[in-house]
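thought: user wants a sequence for this fold. calling inverse folding tool.
action: design(structure=
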């Protein structure tokens, strides 16, 4: 039975659930239309193409991730903020593996979708706020530290979601060690003034 009153937001919500079920790479307009109870041409009233839908899904997922990270780190700083942020990040990736995968696309200022860029900046701002608790304030140092943190968390989450941890050691224990190691790393993160300069 066709879904009455389908909207763009409704299509995106269906797509969000779809990518969690089947993965972002398998997302198609046909699959979303079937789940919406409509024919594919009906989707074009709300979404111009599959790529537009992918961008909308990535944008929504980034906003969800930013909200969870912001809520987790609110009112705390340094190690407490980092720990809560890391657990919120992993929690989102575990609960929403497909959505999380969609957040991994590069989001660059000056890109062709302002909403996607803004959503990416929301996540970046939350992470930057947590890193400033470690006195990392120089722009270049913040970028470097953000990349190190993201690479660590993303690698762990993608391996966990992909079934990459088969050894007997508790995954929870390994993640706790990772977070502790990140805290110690960030506590000694070099700033621009600490780096050697060419004479």
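)
observation: tool returned 199 residues.
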């Amino acid at each position: 039975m066709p879904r009455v009153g389908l909207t763009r937001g409704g299509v995106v919500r269906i797509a969000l659930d779809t990518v969690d079920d089947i993965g972002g790479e398998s997302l198609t307009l046909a699959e979303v239309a079937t789940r919406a109870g409509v024919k594919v041409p009906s989707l074009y009233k709300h979404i111009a193409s599959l790529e537009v839908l992918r961008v909308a899904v990535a944008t929504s997922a980034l906003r969800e991730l930013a909200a969870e990270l912001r809520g987790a780190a609110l009112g705390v700083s340094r190690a407490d903020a980092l720990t809560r942020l890391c657990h919120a990040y992993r929690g989102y990736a575990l609960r929403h593996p497909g959505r999380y995968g969609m957040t991994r696309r590069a989001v660059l200022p000056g890109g062709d979708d302002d909403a996607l860029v803004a959503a990416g900046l929301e996540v970046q701002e939350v992470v930057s706020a947590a890193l400033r608790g470690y006195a990392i304030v120089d722009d270049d140092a913040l970028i470097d530290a953000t990349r190190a943190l993201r690479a660590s968390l993303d690698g762990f989450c993608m391996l966990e979601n992909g079934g990459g941890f088969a050894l007997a050691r508790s995954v929870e224990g390994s993640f706790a060690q990772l977070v502790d190691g990140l805290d110690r790393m960030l506590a000694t993160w070099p700033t621009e003034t600490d780096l050697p300069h060419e004479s």
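thought: summarizing for user.
answer: Here is the designed sequence. The mean pLDDT is 90.
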